[in-house]
Batch of 3 targets.
Target 1
Amino acid sequence: MDLTFLLETISEPWLLAFGGLVVGVLFGAFAQQSRFCLRAASLEFSRGTPNDRLPVWLLAFSAAVLVTQVLAAINEVQASEARQLASPQSLSGALLGGLMFGAGMVLARGCASRLLVLSATGNLRALLSGLVFAVIAQASLRGLFRPLREWLAGLWTTGDIGGNDLAAHLGLTSAMTIAFACLWLAAGLVFAWRARLKLWQAVAAVGAGLAIPLAWWFTSSTARQAFDPVQVEGVTFTGPSADTLMLLLSPPGNVLDFDIGLVPGVFLGSFLAALLTRELKLQGFEGGRSMARYLTGATLMGFGGMLAGGCAVGAGITGASIFAVTAWITLTAIWVSAGLTDRVLSGIETGRLQAAQ
């Protein structure tokens, strides 16, 4: 797509921010309507009780990977210029951060994107947890926790294995990666049929997934045509949440870019979708123990997401859609950790009930 007119009409930072806003609105609206949630999907899988959340995640994931790979095959997406593939990444950070993030999202009852979507519908638990997540992410990026994050991230990097491109390591062609994505899509359709997933929920799940290749395509197109260097990137929430927080706290020192538009866009999209479907509802904490659980989870996600180089969406879908090794490690670690954490919490709750009796 020719963006010359837009680039001549408005400045590049404003165009990037507007693009992030549009992508965010679409993702937020579709995620809210589909009930997209990696936590719920992973728990359905680990408990062996697949319902509607697992097929929603599979449809979103497969749509993101499939369309991204198709766009890359026709050179509409420059995946090789994305941060995940163009610069060294941390394998130890992907593993450890993924384990922390998986545990955190179970404690907080939602990953970073889910908390943002829920907060827009009036969920005060998600709003406070999301703010804590952003604060810890910022502290891990540039603040108090930065030395610890850098030390853990430096233990094992992609430089030790010759790069972060999984397709290159395995010798996969574009046709192979597209076929692989089609298998995931087929699995999503099968689970959707078994769960009797509503048509609109399935469409919304695919819509949420398509926001990822849309982001890749928009930033790739802008990078090709802009005068100044532009980072090719997709949808993620750890870094953008921290950047948005700092923009609110100290506006003069921050520059507009795609990430700055993304987070407000998701909030706006989710709010509008909930408003139109009459799903706005104020919800708060149920007690001190509940609050402590949520905030502990948000803290683990903030540090874990920054250590892993992405959240459940940023690494688990966006990074996986371009076949970054670290993204697949993070995604696997999140699923494993979420299942184990759920079992531990269930055991604790069972013991508490038995003691009460």
Target 2
Amino acid sequence: MSEPLAYPPPSYIDPHSLMQIKSFELRAKSVVEGFFTGLHRSPYHGFSVEFTEYRQYSSGDDLRYLDWKLFARSDRYYIKRFEDETNLRCHILVDNSRSMSFGSLGYTKEDYAKTLAATLAYFLTTQRDAVGLLRFSEGVDEFIPARYRVGQLRRILVSLENSTAGTSSGILPALEEAAERVRKRGLFVILSDFLTDVDELQSRLGYLRSGGNEVAVFQLLDPAEVNFDFDAPAMFQDAETGREIYIDPKSARDQYQKKLHDHLRNVEEICERLGIHVSRLTTDMPLENALLTFLQTRLRVTQTRRQ
């Protein structure tokens, strides 16, 4: 699992302020533009160029395609990328189940997930990549096949704006259906709290991973879920089943955190066995962190393929 950034540039946007923007497109644009502004001011300067029209020179590349003008400006060797290198087919899977409706910060995990989905879709579209969307709760609620064409981003954003939380988690059947619907090899990005039974998770993720597909997981949790920093005894409701139970947080905190830790570790181990990158984010973290993690993961995959 990736560690939190040690150097957050000052342009990073506080999630609470970001969620005050009504338009998902403006949220996404703010994150992407702020991210690249901060990137140029940070130790990661020059990182973004590898995700536009160039990639860094590797031993064995044809020297005829070196960009000497770019070398003069950056003192680094870059190769002009070809069309078959730049085209990515990505499907973003967004969990809209009832557990995602929880939020202690003035917005919910669902709000955060949809904003992250919009950000990734916006970024991929600017890179001329094909992007699609699959929303799920009890099952698949809506499926938009990955395309790169006029109107595709707008269609995805409208879907995210119109989505509502379901009644229970259907992540396992959704993963299976996604693998069945998407026949062309590509990347699946899953945005979920993964607060579900993990017994069958490995087989379903393995099914999605089969056929050479890449899978990236973002596990999204509210800080209150992680810290369980409630004080007074109260009735708590299971977000998936609706069952209510009276709990004294002080006496239950240790047991709760142990069970949560075990569950999170199980998810990590399943992903590690399948070669899936998993990143855990709490909803108080700037979304630029997630975008940087996404780019770093893509860069590692690209570099591995060249070796």
Target 3
Amino acid sequence: MPALSGLTGCAGMGEWAYRLRQFNGHAELLNRALPVDAWLADPATPEATRQALQLALRLRAFAVRDLDLPDNASYQRYAALPVEAQGSVVWNVVAAPAHSLKPRTWCAPVMGCVAYRGHFERARAAAQAADLRAEGWDVYLYGVPAYSTLGWSNALGGDPLLSSFLHWREDDLARLLFHELAHQRAYAPDDTGFNESYATAVERLGVAAWQRAQGRSTEATPEDVVREQRRERWRALALAARSDLAALYALAPPDVAARKQARFRQLVDDLAVLTADDPGYSGYLAWARQANNAHLALVSAYQSQVPAFEALFHRLGGQWSAFHAEVARLAALPPHQRSF
């Protein structure tokens, strides 16, 4: 998940207003959050919430002990969001040119430049998305259930557990917590792809370690195996489309617009074929029907470097401390000097 952008630094009046809204949005979440122990001690806490909080604490303890992720204030408090949040705490806007897969970036000190713009209010995100479309950008507006403050808010109580994700399936909750804690372990300003691919690699490797610790050598159930196979197939199709379009945009032929649309139609058709045999792909098909350059830019940011990070982990003997230390070293280098 993304980091929370735009909270510090020099800016114009419009940017200051944005950053103030971001700070206020996070402060509101912190004000809602209470220690997990308080929720567990409250007899009014629903049993499902109690069990989910206990699982979250076990996952956090595992992340600290076995994955060498930070042991700080994050994920020791819980906030129940208003019903209207509907599973999203922040709304992100991603924009890419009509004939490029390089996303627009927004910059702020500390976190650097990132390939998205986050808003606590969906209406503001939708308004920005509309403005960008009017300027000719390909735009993707989506809700996210969690974000990272990169550890800067730990003195204020840290990033809280949220009702937008607390009741997820066990492995999905593990993925999210491991991913977000990874952002607090190593972070490269100005490189969304590096940061998100690293965190995605941590969640994938971390979930496999969690499963082994629970006595599972594979996914818990056949249904889980199928879900992961669908996810991997979608990733492969999306990254293939991105590769084809990157080559097309580099050539910039006269009919680039028509060929772009044809490649996106092929992505839809590929997923429609899979959905006809397996309705479990329907969510991916819906995504493909809306997809544009911004969608593929985001997929690339989260996925393109994951194999390289996983290979680095294995080259270092599966030692988490050595892995995180090497990633932190790479993150401190200029982007052109980062070599896996």
